[in-house]
Amino acid sequence: MTALPPSIVARALLLLTICSTVSAQFPAPRCCETYCYSQDSDRTQVKHFATKTAYEVIHGPSSSREHIVPNCRPSKFWLLSRHGTRLPGKKAISALPQTLKNLRDSILDNYDVRRTRPDVGRMCPDDLELLRNWRWDSNITTDYESFLTAQGWNDLKFLAKREQDRFYEVFNGPYVRENYLFRHTKTQRTEASFRAFADGLFGDGAYVHVKPEPEPADDTLLKPYDFCPAYDANKDRNKDANSEQSKFLRSPLFLQTLSDISTRLGFQYNLSVDQVEAMWDQCRFEQAWHIQEYSPWCSVFTKEQVNVLEYKEDLGYYYQNSYGYPKAADLACYAVSDMIRHLARPENPTVIGYFTHETEIQLFLNALGAKQDREAPRADNYYAMRNRQFRSSELTPFAANVAAVRYQCTDPREPVKVIFFLNEKALMFDWCKVGLCDWSEVQRRYQRYTEGNCAKLYCGGSGAKRVNVGEGFIMLVSVVLTVVLAAIARK
């Protein structure tokens, strides 16, 4: 065999080096990890479904002893709770049945007919069978949009029973109106959540005898964000192309995740964000409705893909309702002030329970200064934020709640203590002793909400109240009279 000239050998080696370098920088398209949802007994991803996470997989254990404080007894219980598991909203119920049926049929065709399934990381036969047998529940119609489900009722009923067992000194005896103050927003899901909580405390059907306080026209206590134009403006800004969530949707990581999901399902093109979110929402809802069962739509995602979808949602919540929005804490002024006012008084009511929505819980946690990360989550730091404090799945699942419990203690220096609980787990603040906070320090930390004027602090002093036509007319007349009188005086 004739030897090749040295120059040609050198060129060939150079070409091989270049090819290997390019290959390292631009690896061949990958698909997915091998994963079978139907055969996974742990299913740890169900704890990462953002605000549609089931409460049962998040709340603290009944066996916890964090509420037991030596030489102290509970004397007052204040609760801010999100409603329990609900049905989808009207828009989703109208669109999801057909959208999901089309996706399901296409996925099955990709596997059974077109044979476009990936070589590695394909769906397992058991997961495909789950999808094959899936049908939309015909009982879920727009007549029941956002209604509390049976699981949602149990979320609140058994929360009440556990809290009653923990704090039996406060929850003692039958219902007496003077001892209990309840209130909920004007929605079926929060009203039903209140009733379930009352049943948990006083027995099945007891809610008919438990009278909640009426909700005011402008409920700045439980829905402050509904009456603040500045909040709406910030919400709109978070939809802009420059928001962290929008940038994350355009990031290589998220685009690769879309590609991986599409490839795993056998598609030769990328599914849209809306299509992926339709499957993601149905997965989360079904898993929250039927905790012990397998949702067919959860089988289309691997665990890492779920983490990416969760992070996308967290970016939205962080900059809308939490530390990414500088005015978020002030929106919770009325709620913090109410909590401090009730905890400060030893007299009745001894149990205060409010039933609201995820936004209010996130705003309130911000005002407390709870679950704050050293670094803000951004579009470009997903991996650095894997162990972040701000995780909506853990903060505001269905039935999320914050409880503040006042303790009367024998400590002569600080006889009153407070423990804050998030989803039945003690919140740890660096200014408290393993969750046990001195009352004087609680007052000092939150004095801007109690000593200030919430009407001025809330929403920057604007938007706290709607101005009706009559009020507007009076204001206009007042301004005109002022101008006229000033003109007369100058003459």
TrEMBL record:
GO cellular component, one term: plasma membrane
InterPro entries named among the record's database cross-references: His_Pase_clade-2 (IPR000560), His_PPase_superfam (IPR029033), Histidine_acid_Pase_euk (IPR016274)
Transmembrane segments: 472-489
Record's subcellular location: Cell membrane
Any Pfam family the entry gives: His_Phos_2
Catalytic activity reported: 1D-myo-inositol hexakisphosphate + H2O = 1D-myo-inositol 1,2,4,5,6-pentakisphosphate + phosphate; (2R)-2,3-bisphosphoglycerate + H2O = (2R)-2-phosphoglycerate + phosphate; 1D-myo-inositol 1,2,5,6-tetrakisphosphate + H2O = 1D-myo-inositol 1,2,6-trisphosphate + phosphate; 1D-myo-inositol 1,2,4,5,6-pentakisphosphate + H2O = 1D-myo-inositol 1,2,5,6-tetrakisphosphate + phosphate
Entry keyword Electron transport: no
Keywords for this protein: Cell membrane, Disulfide bond, Glycoprotein, Hydrolase, Membrane, Signal, Transmembrane, Transmembrane helix
Residues spanning the signal sequence: 1-24
Keyword Ligase in annotation: no
EC code(s) of this entry: 3.1.3.62, 3.1.3.80
GO molecular function: acid phosphatase activity; bisphosphoglycerate 3-phosphatase activity; inositol phosphate phosphatase activity
Record family assignment: Belongs to the histidine acid phosphatase family. MINPP1 subfamily.
Protein name: Multiple inositol polyphosphate phosphatase 1
Organism expressing this protein natively: Culex quinquefasciatus
Organismal lineage: Eukaryota, Metazoa, Ecdysozoa, Arthropoda, Hexapoda
